[in-house]
Amino acid sequence: MGVTKTILRSGNGVDRPTKGDEVIIDYRGCLYDPSRSTYHNMGKQFDSSQDRGEFKTPIGIGKVIRVQQPFAMSKSLTLAFYCTGWDEGVMNMTVGEKCILTIS
Fold first, then answer.
1. Residue 92 has what pLDDT?
2. pTM greater than 0.85 (yes/no)
3. Beta strands 98-103; 77-82: pairing state
4. Per the structure, how many domains does the chain have?
5. 82 in Cβ contact with 67 (< 8 Å)
6. What CATH number should be reported for the domain holding residue 87?
7. I need a surface site. Which of 35, 57, 89, 94 has the fewest CB within 10 A?
8. Residue ranges in the chain modelled with pLDDT below 50
């Protein structure tokens, strides 16, 4: 996985969250669409905090995007992974920053 950040508005340049800090974020999650050349290849929106109000969560501990593997390693062990790109991208933002995170 990798993450690319495109800054739309700079933050204060100083205050960055660290692992376990609670952050408040407005976000819009869209699928990547290489056929769309406008607005950073944003495709269909799959989630947004804009209709629900502010989104508050601890960062850096894998609570936001969790992917359950479709297979079990054994009868008693099922693997679960989380998207590190979200945590990595948010922990590299500063207070007040607006950006686009492209996670692959």
1. 93
2. no
3. unpaired
4. 1
5. yes
6. 3.10.50.40
7. 35
8. 69-74, 78-80
The enclosing H or E element of 87 equals: helix 84-91
Tokens linked to 69: 């593997």
Structure tokens at 33: 């669409």
Amino acid at 63: K
How far is 38 from 36, CA to CA, in rounded Å?
6
| Tens of pLDDT, residues 4-16 | 899 999 999 999 9
The domain of 64 spans 3-103
C-alpha triplet 65, 69, 72: angle, nearest 5°: 145
- CB neighbour burial string for 32-64, b if at least 16 within 10 angstroms, e if fewer: eeeeeeeeeebeeeeeeeeeeeeeeeebbeeeb
Contact 16, 92 (CB under 8 A): yes
In the structure encoding, which two tokens stand for residue 24, read together?
């408040």
